[in-house]
Amino acid sequence: MSDGTAARGMDAFTALGDAVRAALSERGFETPTEPQRRAIPPLAAGDDALVIAPTGTGKTETAMLPVFDAIVRADDESRQGLSALYITPLRALNRDMRQRLEWWGETLDVEIDVRHGDTTQYQRGKQADDPPDVLVTTPETLQAMLTGKKLRRALSDVRHVVVDEVHELASAKRGAQLTIGLERLRALAGPFQRIGLSATVGSPEEVGKFLTGDRGFEIVEVDVGSDVSFTVTHPEVTAADERLAGELATDAEIASHVRVIRDLVREHESTLVFVNTRQTAEALGSRFKTLGEPIEVHHGSLSKDVRINVEDRFKAGDLDALVCTSSMELGIDVGRVDHVVQYGSPREVSRLLQRVGRAGHRRDEVSRGTLVTAEPDDTLEALAIARRAEAGEVEPARIHHASLDTVANQIVGVVMDEGEVSARRAYEIVTAAYPFADLEEATFREVVRELSKNRLLWLEEDADRLEKSGGTWQYFYANLSMIPDEETYEVHDISSRGQIGTLDERFVVNFAEPGAAFIQRGEMWRINDIDDEEARVNVTPIEDPSGEVPSWTGSEIPVPQHVAREVGEIRGVAAEQFGGGASRESVARDLRHRYPTDSDTLEAALDPIERQVDADLPVPTAERLVAEGQARTVVLNSCYGHRINETLGRVLAALVGQRTGSSVGMEVSPYRIELEVPTRASVTDVTDVLETTDPAHVEAVLELALQNSDALKFTLAQVAAKFGALKRYQGRDRFGADRLLAALEDTPVYDEAVREVFHVDLAVEAAADLLAGLQGDAVTLATARERTPIGTGGRSSGRELLVPENADASVIEAVKERIRNDRVRLLCLHCSDWEHKTKVRRVRDQPECPECGATRIACLNPWDEETVAAVRADAADRDDEAERLVERAYRSASLVQSHGKQAVIALAARGVGPQTAARIIAKLREDEADFYRDILEQERQYARTQSFWD
């Protein structure tokens, strides 16, 4: 911001008119806050601006006072339609904003209303006939409004648009969609003022361009780091924790986490306890319920009524704390918060600042937060993030540039707006939005042709004109959002007849069956029945503490490269000191000067580093990768964060697999890549690939590797739906996944699916740079002769801190019991006369034919008449399909002959054929539960992908 702008802010309220200043006096606003002092003058002058300031410093008033002032000063004629839109990413924020702005509206005679997906038809009609001055809405509702005949007239008067929590939208496709929506609005209303609000933005210039279409804007940024204070703590297990563990039916380590959080809540008046996933929220909430603490759970899968209830009770002081997810990051009004607990590393600096920023500002206090960590990686990561947060080192926004399914969606939107439009005009509207400024016209035309092919619009090539088709209207209203559609099931308590929340379809498919238990809203529930047609799960409350925690998708927040590298730097500094003979206490003392924590926490985090140095093993750091292996597991220790490790892991899996002719399993965390390799592969194969792969070939290798990956197939189905290539109302089982890939290759649909996987999951350029550094002198590669303390530590990408290792015991038992009672069809392949349908539990340990005594018995589905007929037919009469069935039967019989009843159990599982069954049986295991666990995992995989196969 220029010196001139700063000078204008010395007496910010004087920039406002008499009516607004009188309202300020009545409201008790005597002195502007820092963001108000600096931002109100340029906003009152009509400038576009991005305002970045901590939560609770009056950002809403900063944006809206100049807007109210402009509305109040306008003449009656210019107030016929909508004067201002206030866009928020959450419906819950709409409700809060209306309440927050209501007083100003009543005092200044400015009408304010809310519109979103739940707004009644009556209210919508009223808003269209008699528009309010200010409408609070969501990005998706704006999409719908732009196509309404009466609403377009109202929108043509818009002069101000405020986008709240703009950082949340800048890195998402729904934000990219909004930017084109704003350009469609500009085409209708002419230029209007754009104001963006956020508590944290790591790349203000980029987000400002995102907001305004790069048309010039002010950045008003109030330093966040100086107003926050953090403490990182790793609880020590005490004797009291051992006793508490018995009460909570968990282990002492988890009991110590619960104790520390409980004590922090008791020390403060009102606390938000943030966790990273909904299952952790539920699991932690259930522990507090057991202890009788006045603490409730808040997350997006709970019903609206439940969320509002706990928000109101917390605001009224009836609850001491809320255990919450990112649903509470975005400024929902729950009254004053005086402390924030972050359970586990927050994974990102911006996330920590958003969360801890909820505390303290109401009294101009420093916002204070405590980070409670579980293990060494978690602690070091939290320390790096806390330091970076206090220094204001926020991650840059990762804007979706040129996402082609968004282009497709918005081309249809432009046609909906205008009825018919030239392709050139549509291209100009789309490319006026910053994320699409570099979209080539040839690519745009490919997208248009794809839409025309899918009958979402008519393209007249000669006239260069786009028109509505029969499918335009249906497609557009079914695709107002860029968030992929996922079926959700409502969860209803049949004893109280109320809805308590929702479950993802994947959870229902994989886990839910009558009698199964799970946690939601911090309480235990047992499933009574499932109504698939109504997408409803009916439950009853239970006291059993051993349920399966509901599993939601998308729970892993990727740790950025700079955070992971700082963890590597801490390791490097500590390793050097340990190598020089320093004690753990002295190393911890040195690190305390830089990081906000205590000696005990640091010493616990340094333990594996000290043990690694003592064993004379290389320590992985920011400049050193360490490869280690044992049996079929090879681990590459790499402090480069999720995306680079995911990229490098895929390259390694592809190229090592290519060398050995076998598939390679992969699991990734921010600090290690774990590969499950064939017996003939070794650590040397992995290091050879790292040292010989041309960095310039990384992208090509990944594109080849992606072709058969689930990630691309799932993304392709979602993108295809947005292009109308896979009509949602026809269902996703229209194509098998491989056929879908073949059908859409060399189309913009396929290009976008690849782009999205690369953008969301991978970091191709950074991984190529790492390989180049490794093959030069910038990064070293060491090998360890054994598994190391650091290499075996850390969290796996899917493991949640609060779920004990035996949490799935009841699920495994249920799977075992279900398979035992499933029916199979046994068929003798020697005489082919004998066949028998029976339950799995009645099958003998080594089945044999009672007619001829042979042990070559195929295990088939009980309804499989085709295979029986094919086996009994003469070989000369069999077609290709019959030959395939016979071959499959012989593979099944071979398994049963070799492995007896174990093979029958594996073959009876859902979606498991002879090849998969052989793979399950071949794994070495310590106990029977692992056998059923592998079967369950295969059944889940089948459930996830079943809709793709014919």
TrEMBL record:
InterPro entries: ATP-dep_Helicase, DEAD/DEAH_box_helicase_dom, Helicase_ATP-bd, Helicase_C-like, Lhr-like, Lhr-like_DEAD/DEAH_assoc, Lhr_WH_dom, P-loop_NTPase. The keyword Methyltransferase does not apply. One of its GO terms (molecular function) is catalytic activity, acting on DNA. The keyword DNA damage applies. Keywords: ATP-binding, DNA damage, DNA repair, DNA-binding, Helicase, Hydrolase, Isomerase, Nucleotide-binding. Residues 40-219 form the Helicase ATP-binding domain. Residues 260-405 form the Helicase C-terminal domain. Belongs to the Lhr helicase family. Lhr-Core subfamily. PANTHER family: ATP-DEPENDENT HELICASE LHR-RELATED, ATP-DEPENDENT HELICASE LHR-RELATED-RELATED. This is ATP-dependent helicase Lhr and Lhr-like helicase.
